[in-house]
Design goal:
Blueprint lengths: L1 E7 L3 H7 L1 H7 L4 E5 L10 H4 L5 E5 L9 E5 L5 E4 L12 E6 L2 E7 L8 H26 L3 E7 L23 H12 L4 E2 H5 L26 E5 L1 H4 L2 E6 L15 E5 L1
Parallel strand pairs: 1-2, 7-8
Antiparallel strand pairs: 1-12, 2-4, 3-4, 5-6, 6-7, 8-10, 9-10, 11-12
């Protein structure tokens, strides 16, 4: 059994003060993938930087206070890689992977965009490079007899079932036709599977991000953008997947909720 959780913490220092530390102490996960850490290791208290019982790898962004990903594993990784060989993005705190016995687990923070701006152009450049890396990663893993799961904030809702207000967001970054078509290629061309969708084929959502504006959380007006994207062999072993949605708005420690999958 392997239990993997992905969580965009929306600033690890802030999340640690709101309940992340208690959540981590209680989780049954074997691997935790974090995104939007937004901190250097030296800025974090020891209980967050080096929690007891975990091996932690941080990949901060060169631009301080931005992005940043991390991996927490119960057992020591056999190998760690930061970045995916991109001259533009390898110091941007958006990707880190670790080899564990039989499986490579990665934490991804895909850029968020904004239509008509350089941020969207950046997102599209990242997507183009990252798709090629996903193909390479799957081929390399297959040659080594390994499976792969890339967890994280992919910042794209793939289908209408993946966001509450899809009609109003057809021209919004995160639900653009070209972004959704890119995820089609991740699944069809690169050969990965959307694990949570396979486990919940008929369900709207389950959503993992809700805006802090208005009553989005209370109304469950969310987006499903925090994904487990796995090679077919590992995806087929998934027996349970859940969004760890807080009971109330006040109990949230991020605008995202952890997404946890148990692989048998």
């Amino acid at each position: 059994m392997l239990t993997v959780t992905t969580a965009n913490v929306n600033g690890l220092r802030a999340a640690a003060k709101k309940g992340y530390v208690e959540w981590l102490a209680a989780t049954d996960a074997d691997v935790v993938c974090l995104q939007e850490v937004r901190a250097e290791e030296s800025q974090l208290p020891e209980a967050v930087r080096a929690p007891e019982g975990w091996h932690v790898v941080f990949a901060p962004a060169a631009a301080k206070g931005r992005a940043g990903v991390a991996l927490l594993t119960r057992r020591a990784p056999e190998r760690v890689r930061t970045g995916f060989g991109s001259a533009e993005f390898d110091t941007s705190g958006r990707y880190v992977e670790a080899d564990l016995p039989g499986v490579t687990v990665a934490s991804l923070y895909l850029p968020s965009g904004e239509v008509g701006t350089e941020r969207q152009d950046e997102k599209e450049r990242f997507m183009a490079e990252f798709l090629e890396y996903l193909k390479e990663l799957r081929a390399r893993a297959a040659a080594d007899g390994r499976e792969v799961v890339v967890c994280g904030d992919w910042n794209i809702a793939h289908q209408e079932a993946d966001l509450k207000n899809w009609k109003a967001n057809r021209k919004s970054s995160g639900f653009l036709p070209e972004e959704r078509a890119w995820l089609d290629r991740v699944y069809a061309e690169a050969g990965y599977a959307d694990v949570m969708r396979a486990l919940h084929p008929e369900q709207a959502g389950p959503y993992s991000w809700w805006s802090y504006r208005g009553r989005a959380f209370d109304n469950d007006s969310g987006w499903r953008i925090d994904l487990h994207v796995a090679t077919p062999g590992l995806a087929a072993r998934a027996v349970k997947g859940q969004v760890e949605r807080a009971a109330t708005h006040e109990e949230r420690w991020s605008d995202h909720a952890p997404v946890t999958v148990v692989y048998g």
